[in-house]
Specification:
Number of helices: 8
CATH topology: Nucleotidyltransferase, domain 5
Strand content: 15-25%
Mean pLDDT: 95
Number of domains: 1
Distance between the termini: 68 Å
CATH class: Alpha Beta
Strand order of the largest sheet: 3-2-1-4-5
Radius of gyration: 18 Å
């Protein structure tokens, strides 16, 4: 591949949930080993995502994950934490990309050129691949959190503010993996403080 220019696709999972880290993935696809069926991870079944994630890890030229923890999200806000996770994913790639394409409308600060593409996870295969890896990794993380904190049922809603999750927050108060900078968590924490006062 003498004329091949490595381009990394980057996407994240976990901006909207009330708990857990935000996880980003960066993927440099190998043009000689195309992967059929890449799409926005949210449009795929969990089983299909898992199968594609295995294919991506086996066939991509390079892939890496980056994350920002709950404490970082609360300290710098979710947007900055997401950009930080993306930076970490790109920095961890074993192949340095010449260009980076990011899903959305904001680019992390990188040493190589970067372009944001709205709905890129549905239109750019490398971003779709990153979307899938990030979603699969974060979902696995939330299943592990479910084992530690079964009362919140993280395995079902993955930390998103569903009615059942909000009810569990009200009943049990937040755990250490809840993002205290998010309004529903803050409200639940206030209720706990007032009840115990």
């Amino acid at each position: 591949m003498p004329d091949f220019v490595p381009v990394a696709g980057v996407d994240e999972a976990g901006r909207g949930p009330l708990a857990g880290p935000v996880v980003a993935a960066a993927v440099v696809l190998d043009p000689s080993r195309p992967i059929a069926g890449l799409a926005d991870s949210k449009k795929l079944s969990a089983a299909r995502r898992e199968r594609l994630a295995n294919e991506i890890r086996d066939n991509a030229l390079a892939w890496a994950l980056g994350r920002a923890e709950v404490a970082e999200i609360d300290r710098v806000n979710i947007l900055q934490a997401t950009l930080l996770a993306m930076q970490r994913a790109v920095a961890a790639l074993s192949v340095a990309p010449a260009n980076v394409l990011v899903d959305g409308n904001r680019c992390p600060s990188l040493i190589c050129p970067c372009r944001a593409i709205v709905k890129g996870d549905a239109t750019v295969p490398a971003i779709s691949a990153a979307s899938i890896l990030a979603k699969v990794a974060r979902d696995a993380e939330l299943r592990r959190l479910h084992d530690r904190y079964p009362q919140y049922n993280f395995a079902r809603h993955k930390g998103y503010p569903t009615a059942a999750h909000l009810e569990a927050l009200r009943r049990h108060g937040p755990c250490s993996e809840h993002r205290r900078s998010f309004a529903p968590v803050l409200a639940a924490l206030q209720t706990v403080i007032e009840t115990s006062a």
